[in-house]
Amino acid sequence: MRKLLTPLTAVYWIIAIAFYPAISARSANKPSKNMHPQERAFFENKIRPVLVKKCYSCHSSKSEELGGKLRMDTRDGMRVGGESGPAFVEGRPNESLLIQALRYDGLEMPPDEPLSEAVIQDFIKWVEMGVPDPRVEQPVAARKPDTENAAANPELWSFQPVKNPSPPSVKEQDWCFDPIDRFVLSHIEQAKLQTTHDASPVHLVRRLYFDLTGLPPAAEQVETFLNDYEQHRQQAVTRLVDELLASPHFGERWGRYWLDVARYGESNGNDGLGRNPTFPHAWRYRDYVIQAFNDDVPYDQFLTEQIAGDLLSAQTPAERDRLLIATGFLAIGAKPAKAMNVNFDMDVVNDQINVISTGVMGLSVACARCHDHKHDPIPASDYYALAGIFLSTETMWGYAANQPLTAPETPLHILKAKTHYVAPPDSGVKPVVNKRAQSRKKKPKNVYPAGTALAMGVREKKKIVDCKINIKGESKKLGPQVPRGFLSACKVAQPPELTDKSSGRLQLAQWLTSADHPQTARVMVNRIWLHLFGQALVRTPDDFGVYGERPTHPELLDHLAIRFRSEGWSVKQLIRAIVLSHTYQLSSFCEAEILEADPENRLLCRHNRRRLDAESLRDSILAASGQLNREPARGSAIANVDELVNKVSNLHLPHNHRSIYLCMLRHSDPPELSAFDLPDSTKPVGRRNESTLPTQSLFLLNSPFLVEQADWFAKEVLSDPELDESGRIHLAYRRALNRTPNSAELERALTLIHDVDQALETEFSQEELRRVAVWATLCQGLLTTNEFRYVD
């Protein structure tokens, strides 16, 4: 591996790396309707319940005596503060009085007993986030949501029945390739604007490869498409799209999007005690998701398998195992420390309700755990109607990394088919549960023979129960019992009936996938549009509630939802229709008038330039260097580890498979991805944050991974002895950027090669090593350019 950058190469890097666009700091005091949905969810799920339970009795408008003259029931009350000053300093938890008081550092709040370390960490994170707070100036008295009149309330658009609008008439009918285009063009014509020109074939082929497979095209693939496009144009695009949809890499790309929604992780995450126990069997769910997208499992079936796969019939042992693995969707969530949490069982239920409501319906149902929802038509009784379904379900996560204070041990699904991957016998590694049984005085309850294939998931409990309302979210303070059921404001013509014979999970899946459910299809087509355009039709993809954004093209959203359902809930078919539309094939470059008239591109007059996500960036680097192993990886690095993440030297073992197969530990990201906005996998995430931080530039400069791949890239460039320096530069540009350099770029690259060669002459005694180092400088420069990291 090369040494650290020399002064000359360091100067080159400063010039070669395209500067990131500046981002403005978000104001935590912004209007609540503009708050990021993830910030709102964090406050509602983590902060508000604690303030209500622990602080309002002494620090609210209803307090008999206002403690320290500090109001904590409004946003501005905490900002102004009390006798000791403001409660916090945004972004600086160590300087915030609130955090000092929670830590019992000088001040002691709450005075009766300290909060758990996990809750304190939530408040620290809240301050680090900038204290996002959706509360209004004056506290609003809770009122029962108007579920009966939801359909008549214009604010509750997502609860309205999905309509089947006819594509509107447009002036330029010949411009439209698909009805999608007519919905888009109609808005543009009404605004008296025009679309930009079509994307160049080079930009289009690169866009299609990344959008459908997450990988860049090889130089030969670009050349093949360009030749076909020159003769047949739309037929060439159609042929390429069909080829990419049939690629096994499609499932790796689109499966990763679903894993974000499913809050996929291979460890529990920090449980509040600094522990991060592993889930050594979670990877089977990852592989299920990838295969489901490759097989184009209808979305309604895909959801049903994940919610109630154990209740479905199967023809073969392999099919039975697949359905059991699918239920890992409900089991892989992060768990609190059991010994510290009297609400443990209800916290598990809350996670399951949240992943279904947010992930499938785009609604924050979990906010109704402590009280009727503050703004959406979701009473607490609806929350506990769903809770009964999951209280009647046994969640199976196994034995979480030999740690008695975390989630208690449960059984696992035993897979019966003989085709499942397990650690080979000659690996010298015994199954996790047997290893623990040998090392602990107190043996686990569930010990399986060596070589047993196991999976996380759920199954029915023997006793089916309805849930009682937990007053203020406390499982020890019970109110009236609520029959199991669904959301009352989501009107379905023939909702399935629940009986005392089963939990109701299968009926829940049937309700969600009913032909007239108002949210399910809309939410999914909105997610698909987001990943193809970089922005969704509803720009808050996880929030279709009152405070979520309204759709920019409501008729188009409903058209896509109807089309999605009528075409068999086929994800591939919907993606195919969208990418073959003229709207998708527009350029991301446009005239100044268009940019000035619609800077946010809400009208879709152009395409959006997008930065590669973390996985695609790493995979593209490996592809350019020639080191990408395109075969699926088997198993996981943690499949045979029984220690805590923070007690193991390194579970992120190097491999050159695609990034989706890296070990995805909560709060311990793969080092090659950690700088580029991976979600923390504790909550469903439909749209990742896109930050611009110095650590990203430092990664591109100094990462051992990038330096190593640049060396391999250089060796590829130098491998053909017939090429001269200009030929090698052309090869490097084609591998990295899918194009050849222009004359100015070629001249600069030649100058760089000569200058670096002279600078390194005394540093390397062997000429061959020096040649690699010289060319690796150019290669690393190409890998860090904006052009490499962005898709037009």
Automatic annotation (TrEMBL):
Location of the region described as Disordered in the Swiss-Prot/TrEMBL record: 426-446
Domain Cytochrome C Planctomycete-type: 55-113
DUF1549 domain location: 179-394
Domain of life: Bacteria
Segments forming domain DUF1553: 504-752
Name by which UniProt lists this protein: DUF1553 domain-containing protein
